[in-house]
Amino acid sequence: MNIHHLTAALYLADRGVPVLPLRAGKVPFGNCRTCQDNACGGRPNMKTPGPCDCPRPCHAWAAATTDAAVITGPAWSTAWKQAAAVAYHPGGIGLVVVDLDHADAVTWARRTLPATRTVPTTRGEHWIYQGAMPSANHVRDGVDIKSTMSYARWLGPGTGTMTALPDAVRALIVTKPSPVRPVTVPVPTGGGECPHRTPTYLERGIAMAEQRITEAASAVHATVYRTFLAVLSAHGRCGCLTDAHAARLFAAAQTMGETARHCTDAWSNARTALGM
Fold first, then answer.
1. pTM of the full structure
2. SS (H, E, C) the chain
3. Which is the most buried residue in 100, 179, 261, 269, by most CB within 10 A?
């Protein structure tokens, strides 16, 4: 067992920082035995939670926890033996990490952004601000934003005084939205027993589905269909999925350039594939 990483994780958790183990390549483990090795169908690198049947989504940032019983428990016993690093969920403690991936990005940040706490990385720096915001990758060359629904490697406490999240960082993810056309969404009527356990399970599932769609770097139409299929498979038969939930997914797809027609077709095809 990698005692160094486990000790660091427990140290952070004791201070209220949600943590998770990372394997080589900065890829997270599942938070339960059922979902180890991506058995429940998340993205191949497990950086985005999949449609699992666990009590809560258990991959990637959603696995981050401050519960020492989970951190030292059987679900992660193998993970800590293989762990290459510790990660944490910045948004879970009200932080934003500006991940600067190379020297040019660091130079840009020093010219553009207010000074704050910095942590050296293998290729650049993490700049950490107080505040939370949506996460986004590739906001400019070599710059990612890691906050809500994301994770960052723990590389030490860093140096400098942490300052408030500036508008200059918030502005990095502001883009002109594509027009979203209102649609009529066919939602299954359901009637079966609800397996969600808590209302927040459905809400988190919809939020993660929105993120999966909006983070698609390619094959957007296929990603939309697979996401609709996963949502309907997990939530479409018990009646908890409403037209408001489905409309959120349609809106996310349309911001990525999908037409209302494509959204309707993908939703209908997913329902047909599931026998709904």
1. 0.61
2. CCHHHHHHHHHHHHCCCCEEEEECCCEECCCCCCCHHHCCCCCCCCCCCCCCCCCCCCCHHHHCECCHHHHCCHHHHHHHHHCCEEEECHHHHCEEEEEECCHHHHHHHHHHCCCCEEEECCCCEEEEEECCCECEEEEECCEEEEEEECCEECCCCCECCCEECCHHHHHHHCCCCCCCCCCCCCCCCCCCCCCCCCHHHHHHHHHHHHHHHHCCCCCHHHHHHHHHHHHHHHHCCCCCCCHHHHHHHHHHHHHCCCCHHHHHHHHHHHHHHCCC
3. 100
Query: Which string of b and e fits 145-167 if b means at least 16 CB within 10 Å?
Result: bbbbbbbbbbeeeeeeebbebee
What percent of the chain is modeled with pLDDT above 70? 78
**Apex CA 96: angle with CA 57 and CA 136, to 5°?**
65
Cβ-contact 126, 98 below 8 angstroms = yes
Tell me the pLDDT of the chain averaged across its residues: 80
Question: How many residues comprise the chain?
Answer: 276
Rg of the chain on CA atoms, in Å: 20
Task: Determine the pLDDT at residue 191.
Answer: 53
Per-residue confidence at 162, pLDDT binned at 50, 70, 90?
Answer: very high
**pLDDT per position as a tens digit, 58-75:** 567 777 889 899 889 887
